[in-house]
């Protein structure tokens, strides 16, 4: 019997319980690759899971955590061998499959991406699902045809994980970035990342008009609800908004007006079940289009035993940028 440290979530009479404890390797789920986990991170969804604020976890017991980087220790998958450095994001980890806040993980080899040259295992989790989602959003906007000369782009939830990396990438690609945040005290931080203008999220929180004054050619939204409705109403003719989050809610109090009067496109971004080829493209682009110095600027390191408290702080909007978790 081999035991290892893990953050375990169990079903309780009311809600769930969570604790850093010992986990038996024999309880790991099926998979053809076993990884010694070295680093993880704390995303919004991780915060929901460890606090029990939303029914994210759908299997018990569960090891929390939707992201990891580490080294393959065992493999029956022909694509991977012991010693390979890998990244895993999503695929139901921490929800339906035992996740990343553990010293070991067993997953399907088809879920793994090779750690790109130029990115360390630590940096991969400083990026994490938040940064990988931001890059998927950038790729979707580029596929739509958005270019820097078409006008500014807006990023909501700007001081959070998705927003911070989205700003850093977009600014490096030559876009003029408007950052929307509820923490205007973070203006200097956002400008260091590359934002040229900061707006208070209150400007986007009122009831949305069907059509409002055109302000941006595109954007990346991690907030949803009324904020997304306002973004759409203010998007320029034939522009696009990539929607990748729902921090403010799942509703969309909008109308068809932006779509049929301005030809605006709403691009849905899914990071959980994203095809492997697109994942590889996103990680390769992160290796080339994310400034390492800016990534270091937005990253804080914590230990595994600090994750549960950090999850509550992420939900409260108290974390700036990214948290990277040292597992072992």
Key descriptive features of the protein:
328 residues, alpha/beta, Quinone Oxidoreductase, Chain A, domain 1, Rossmann fold, 2 domains, seven-stranded mixed beta sheet, six-stranded parallel beta sheet, 9 helices, 16 strands, globular
Describe this structure in words.
The protein is of the alpha/beta class and 328 residues long. It has two domains: 3-115 and 298-326, Quinone Oxidoreductase, Chain A, domain 1; 130-268, NAD(P)-binding Rossmann-like Domain (Rossmann fold, 3-Layer(aba) Sandwich), CATH 3.40.50.720. The chain is built from nine helices and 16 strands. The protein has helices at 44-51, 121-144, 161-172, 187-193, 225-233, 257-261, 276-289, 292-297, 307-315; strands at 3-11, 16-24, 33-41, 62-63, 67-75, 85-89, 104-107, 113-114, 153-155, 177-181, 195-200, 216-221, 235-243, 265-268, 299-303, 322-326. The strands form three sheets. Strands 3, 5, 6, 7, 8, 15 and 16 form a seven-stranded mixed beta sheet that branches. A hairpin with a 4-residue loop joins strand 1 and strand 2 (16-24). Helix 2 packs across helix 3. The longest helix has 24 residues, at 121-144. The chain is globular and about 60 Å long. The model has no long low-confidence stretch (mean pLDDT 95).
